[in-house]
Amino acid sequence: MNKENAIALAKRAEAAREASYSPYSDFAVGAALLTADGKIYTGANIESSSYTPTICAERVAFFTAVHAGERSFAAIAIVGGRRGEPLSAFCPPCGVCRQVMTEFAEGDFEIILYDGDDVKIHTLSELLPLGFGKDNLKT
Ligand code: THU
Predict the structure, then answer these.
(1) Ligand 1 touching residue 42 (CB < 6 A)
(2) What is the pTM of this model?
């Protein structure tokens, strides 16, 4: 994806971040997931007072899309930072979200990080090398 399209997707993630429910960490994350046929599903992190049930923005976006029947994905943009403040740093996806991505996306799936100014584009295989996936269960 070119830089212009990556920033456009990241802006969708930035808008989705507004819906974050993050009273415990005060860290608001937004994600915008692009399907192979051009649809966008968004998500934001949703926290719990017992902490463990908290779900990341990326998984909200993925699970919403999968529940809608989507199975083919091209890219996800992720933004995060102190709740109520503008973006100031890149927010890479946590390990659990990388594992969920590998369930539904291929190695060339693009992960776009945006700090409010610049974008970084990585592939899933770069961010989760030697990941355990469905093919490993067949051996
Ligand atoms: N968070 C995400 O939503 N995505 C990530 O990849 C990293 C962390 C959320 C979880 C929690 O609500 C807050 O950020 C602080 O960890």
Answers:
(1) no
(2) 0.97
